[in-house]
Amino acid sequence: MYRFNLNPAYCKGCGICIAACPKKVIESTGRLDAKGHILPGGGDMSRCTGCRLCELVCPDFAVAIVEDEAAEEKNDVNPD
Amino acid sequence: MHSETSQNLIAPGIHYLQGAEACAEGAMLAGCRVYAGYPITPATEIMEHFARRLPSMGGRTIQMEDEIASAGVLLGASWAGAKAMTATSSPGFSLMQEVISFGIMTETPMVVVDVQRPGPGQGYISTSQEDVMQARWGHHGEGAIIALSPASVQDMFAMTIRAFNLSERWRTPVLVMAEETVAHMRERLVIPDLDSIEIIDRKTPQDEGIAPQDYLPYGHGPVPPMAIWGQGYDVNHVSLVHHRDGRITGYNAETHFDNIDRIRRKIEDNVADISEVEARFMEDSRHFVICYGAVSRTAVEAVLEARQVHGIPVGYIRLKTLWPFPEARLRELVRDAEKIFVPEMNLGMMKHPITEALRDRCRMVAAVPSLGCLHTPEQILARIQEEAA
Amino acid sequence: MNEIGHPMLKYLKTEGPSGPRLPLILCPGCGAGQVLNYTLHAVDRLLAEDNLNKEDVVFISGVGCSSRLTSHYLQFDSGWTIHGRSLAIATGALLANPKLRIIVFTGDGDAAIGGNHFIHACRRNIDVTIICVNNGLYGMTGGQVAPTTDTGEKTATTPFGNVEDPFDLCKLAETAGAAYVARWSTAHPRQTVKTIIKGIRKKGTAFIEILSQCPVHKKTAPVEMFKALRRLTARVKEGAAVPDGRIAVGEFCNRDKPDWISRYQDIIDQENRHKDTECTGSI
Amino acid sequence: MMEIERYEIRIAGFGGQGVVTIGRILGVAFTVFSGINSVNTQSYGPESRGGACRSEVVLSHAEINYPYVRRADTLIALSAVALDTYLKDVKKGGLLIIDPDAVRVGKNAADQRVVPIPAAAIAHDSGGVKYQNIVVLGALQCLIAEYIEKTALKKAIKATVPPETFDTNVEAFEKGRAHAKAFLNSKPEFRALMDA
């Protein structure tokens, strides 16, 4: 299981990570932040394959895909 | 200090060299290992000498596509740890102003030799002192410059060494404002014991015991120690107005002033150390000839003749350094004068700062102009006689 | 802030004594930021896989949006230099220390003001990797025409349309003598990383053009431009032309030839073997 | 050697006649091998490559300030143009060395001591015309022997010319000297003038 980590201080809401994601996992939060950017967020992260293309295409070093051990454990216990 | 390549450096003793060759030899002795240039009369002999000689010292000479690129090479070479220089003549000097301005802002040690020829435009290929104001004011923006004025083959050698030493000491571009006259003439050059020649190298953060994580590229004092590329200091050379740590965001007027004022004052506050003035025949002189460069050679003959043959009490002052302008030293030397003569191979350029420095100390400052050729002693003498006899 | 950030942040100075250095100064969705990201990924791989020292990696740029990549946030030796002159400065650095592995960021504006330096750097085959972020206009100054702007295109300084033909920078680099020439776009992330790795490994001049988007001056959403770059490009295949109206991407030239430093080193070695006294300049 | 207050030599001819080279050899001979200060200047740029070419040597035991010829003590004119241009700057009683095949002098040089040295012809019969400048140099040494010894000039030639041409250069130098010596011997009145 992966977690979509976003640094809102660096993100400018360009949406390129959303467009690039091969599994269409990343989606827009639809909400303006304090600087007027609409930030992305992780959607159904269970479909994320950890390809890290979003990290690679991000112009602002704002995105990180994190392997979330806690989430994986949780998944094991309660798989649905 | 010269152990690795000393057998290839010019040997101590008496030599007979062109000013251009003496300049190149002085540079190599000072540690110059990168030369970049573009051919132009009457400066080309300097590059040709480097091209022949630098490989034997493990250095590199490159002919670039123009003068801007030639000067640009100096920045990269200097940041990568080498002492580097270029030489050009006036039209090329105009092209280099962009890089000189950048060198001042990034506090880059580099040496530019301008073998001046007349202008404007292509002018002519003869001799000139018409770039002395461009030397100071040619680059855009504030800042200060160091400019030396050689008058002999010996000067071409010694002042080029001094130019490197000053540029390393003060982390700034230094100009050698030569003229065709001194670059082309051949005369005796005496090379002393090499170990007796002082060679100054830039201070690095390692020298000052500053670790990479504590290093401020534009901090630690008026002359910041300079990190060399390839040594793990992750230094960013930047010419945008910057904070002492090299940060360029967070612009404000205070930071701007702090940045530029320090760059100017590290030079202007040290005029006494940097700028050299030679004075002769000062006792009981009522008039003075103030000169620089090759014109000094003519001027001293005129002064001698005025004193010895015509009994006119004329003193002789030679500016060995044009910039920073040695105003305080001039005011020490000239307390009370009648007339001051300023022979120059232009229509009166250094006459202006001289007048500014001494206007309350004399009745008149007279330009003695010549274009395209060295004054004859008669020319200068005639002007002295006309005004002061 | 999340404690786990972008993997390339290890190569960036996020903070300094006088204040924060990130976010990047570039506009939202600017392709230049992507190019920096691709380049750092490539360098990351080289540091892990090759015998490359981080201390020897130097970034140099000139002036313009792409040149902002070589700014105060790089955790590398770097020089943010004069508009168009970055290759002259890179040449100087190599002359002083040939061990340096220099990466030069340029924009399409550098093909104008620095066109001559570009041609001659390729001709000399100086050992640098030139990464040219080509967005077809001058972004920093507000969207003026560039040497790579399409004919007929309206820009701030060609309000009635551009009457000039654009440069093909890759053809120019190849003709001028660069050892390695390739083109990709910001919409080819993995290909670009691979190509930059190849370019840095290549002895001699590697010229890599990366077609990029300027959402601000093209007044188009970053995502639309990003997608269009895929649509408008076609990969070159041996013996086949790219379809009409598509821009060729891929590797155009990869040849082995001695770089400037190697050839000059022969002269240095020769001069030090002979200790030629004839030209000591003594008289 | 005689104490020199200031002695000025000007050499002029076409580019390619070796005018610049002998100026330089003279400078080396005086300064490096005789301990006498000298300043050597020369024409440069396009004119030194085919047009009118000039070289000057100013000598003194004292420091030399003004580096150029003011009133030449000696003019070596290897072309008619050179003579026309520079004769007016030669001192009264000054030495004028010409190649008589190229330069004619008449009343215009009545104030000078004229020494004709057919340098090109002499050189042609030994190493080749390109040694004409060294023939002239030999002649000059003979004529100003009180200022410079021939050994100093030979050392300067050795230090300046390609090693493989040294012997031919010395041969040309000696022929020039011999020719000047013969000329002096044939003109006792000239000799007396020189000694005075």
Q: Alpha-carbon distance between the termini of chain C?
A: 70 Å
Which protein chains are joined by the largest interface, and how many residues does each one contribute? B-C, 66 and 56 residues
Overall 3D form of chain C: globular
Low-confidence stretches of chain C: 276-282
Q: What's the domain count of chain B?
A: 2
**What integer value in Å does the Rg of chain C equal?**
20 Å
User: Biggest β-sheet of chain C, characterized?
Assistant: 8 strands, mixed
The number of helical elements of chain C comes to 8
β-strand number of chain C: 12
Helical residue percent band of chain C: 25-40%
CATH topology of the largest domain in chain B: Rossmann fold
CATH homology superfamily of chain C: Thiamin diphosphate (ThDP)-binding fold, Pyr/PP domains
Structural class of chain C: alpha/beta
Shape verdict of chain B: globular
Written account of the structure:
The complex is a heterotetramer of chains A (80), B (389), C (283) and D (196). Chain A is of the alpha+beta class. Chain A has one domain: 2-Layer Sandwich (Alpha-Beta Plaits). In chain A, 24% of the residues lie in helices and 28% in strands. The longest helix of chain A is centred in the C-terminal third of the chain and has 9 residues, at 69-77. Chain A starts with a strand and ends with a helix. Chain B has 389 residues and is of the alpha/beta class. Chain B has 2 domains: 6-196, Rossmann fold (3-Layer(aba) Sandwich), CATH 3.40.50; 277-388, 3-Layer(aba) Sandwich (Rossmann fold), CATH 3.40.50. Chain B has helices spanning 19-30, 44-53, 67-79, 90-105, 132-137, 153-170, 180-184, 253-268, 271-274, 295-308, 327-333, 351-358, 377-388; strands at residues 13-18, 32-37, 60-63, 83-88, 110-116, 146-148, 173-179, 186-191, 236-238, 277-280, 287-291, 314-319, 321-323, 339-344, 364-369. In chain B, the strands form 3 sheets. In chain B, strands 3-2-4-5-7-6-13 form a 7-stranded mixed β-sheet, sandwiched between helices. In chain B, strands 10-12-11-14-15 form a 5-stranded mixed β-sheet, sandwiched between helices. The termini of chain B are far apart. The model of chain B has no long low-confidence stretch (mean pLDDT 96). In chain C, strands 4-3-5-6-10-9-12-11 form an 8-stranded mixed β-sheet, sandwiched between helices. A two-stranded antiparallel sheet of chain C has the order 1-2. Mean pLDDT of chain C is 93; it is low at 276-282. Chain C has a single domain, classed as Thiamin diphosphate (ThDP)-binding fold, Pyr/PP domains (Rossmann fold). Chain C is an alpha/beta fold and 283 residues long. In chain C, helix 1 (31-49) packs across helix 6 and helix 4 packs across helix 5. Chain D is built from 7 helices and 6 strands; from the N terminus they run E-H-E-E-E-H-E-E-H-H-H-H-H. Chain D has helices at 19-31, 80-86, 119-125, 132-143, 150-160, 166-186, 188-195; strands spanning 7-14, 37-42, 52-60, 72-77, 90-98, 113-116. In chain D, helix 1 crosses helix 5 (150-160) and helix 3 crosses helix 4. Chain D is globular, with a radius of gyration of 15 Å. Chain D starts with 6 loop residues before the first strand and ends with a helix.
